[in-house]
Specification:
325 residues; Rossmann fold; Hypothetical Protein Yjia, Chain: A,domain 2; 10 helices; globular
Length: 325
């Protein structure tokens, strides 16, 4: 079984180590966890601590960012760690300036993709600083991390407060895929909270397609907006040319409000979107957790149309290199 991997991102002093220390105290006795540290922090359990044992191991990635200058060191340490397994989960705490996307790509290299499974990309932000100095706190590095994140921990912000909601809206507006936003005054978020399933399309009933994808539709009969989403796991890859052709046809549907796709090919991950009256937009993205194709319009799509697009998207999936549905 593939080892679950959690990436932890955030600036120095944001509270990454506080969050990680808290999670380590919640390790089930039946599980073996490992930690790779790319940035020095006051981790309460380290490689020389008497608390470190066969159920928990900590290793350092020295020499720079694991995504670039220290990538060879990272690969060596990761292989060494895997040989000391088996592990139930591996946490990788990245340096402040590290970028998630290239590291995720390395985790999915041919030699590692069958033994590792990325489950979370967590970004820790100093919420109080973000409220006081939004232009400084959410800099280019933070935005890049946000666009790869599945979850955001807002440190020094009360859960459920007006500040929590205001920052959640700000972050979701700048994200590629809206992350779950957890506010905490102590920097600690329960590991059980992170393990709760993420909703792809709230209120929709998913229907399996192929052997790993889902299609879901939302919007009651009297709703002003109906959305259909096709979801695929990150393990598959889409042929870029075929996918763009399919999206162009999808945008020609009668009266669509918005068509958006986030998908990965063998070489890159991209977001394609179009709105009425505007030309299509295509850009590279840092998101790597799954593929999503969505159509929003004034009425629900007909079942025959949903089935046609389902088969069309399945036909865009690459079958070589072990990726198939």
């Amino acid at each position: 079984m593939a080892v679950a991997v959690t990436l932890l991102l955030g600036a120095w002093g944001s509270g990454k180590t506080t969050a990680l220390n808290h999670w380590l105290t919640q390790r089930p006795e039946s599980e073996r966890w490992a930690v790779l540290l790319n940035e020095a922090g006051a981790l309460e359990v380290n490689a020389s601590s008497p608390q470190a044992n066969s159920a928990l191991q900590v290793m350092d990635i020295a020499g720079g960012c694991a995504c670039c200058s220290a990538q060879m060191v990272f690969q060596t340490q990761l292989v060494k760690l895997l040989r000391a397994g088996p592990w139930s989960r591996i946490f990788i705490e990245l340096a402040s300036q590290a970028h998630a996307a290239p590291l995720i790509d390395s985790l999915r290299s041919p030699s590692l993709r069958s033994v590792l499974r990325l489950s979370h990309v967590v970004l820790v932000l100093d919420g109080r600083r973000l409220l006081e100095h939004p232009s400084e706190a959410l800099d280019a590095q933070s935005v890049a991390s946000l666009r790869a994140a599945s979850d955001v921990i807002l440190n020094r912000v009360s859960d459920g407060s007006s500040d929590h909601r205001a920052l959640e809206l700000l972050l979701q507006a700048q994200a590629t895929v809206a992350p779950r936003v957890h506010a905490t005054s102590s920097g600690q978020v329960g590991w059980d909270v992170l393990l709760k399933p993420r909703q792809i399309l709230p209120g929709a009933e998913p229907r399996p397609i192929g052997s790993g994808g889902l299609v879901m539709m939302s919007g009651p009969s009297d709703s002003a907006l109906h959305t259909t989403v096709w979801w695929f796991p990150s393990e598959v890859r889409f042929e870029r040319r075929k996918t763009l052709e399919a999206l162009t046809q999808m945008a020609a549907l009668p009266d669509p409000l918005h068509v958006q796709a986030i998908f990965g090919s063998a070489r890159e991950w991209q977001r394609w979107q179009v709105q009425p009256g505007s030309p299509p937009q295509l850009e590279e993205v840092a998101w790597r957790l799954d593929h999503r194709f969505g159509v929003s319009g004034p009425g629900p799509m007909k079942p025959t149309q949903v089935e046609a697009w389902t088969q069309g998207l399945l036909a865009c999936i690459q079958t070589q290199a072990g990726f198939s549905l």
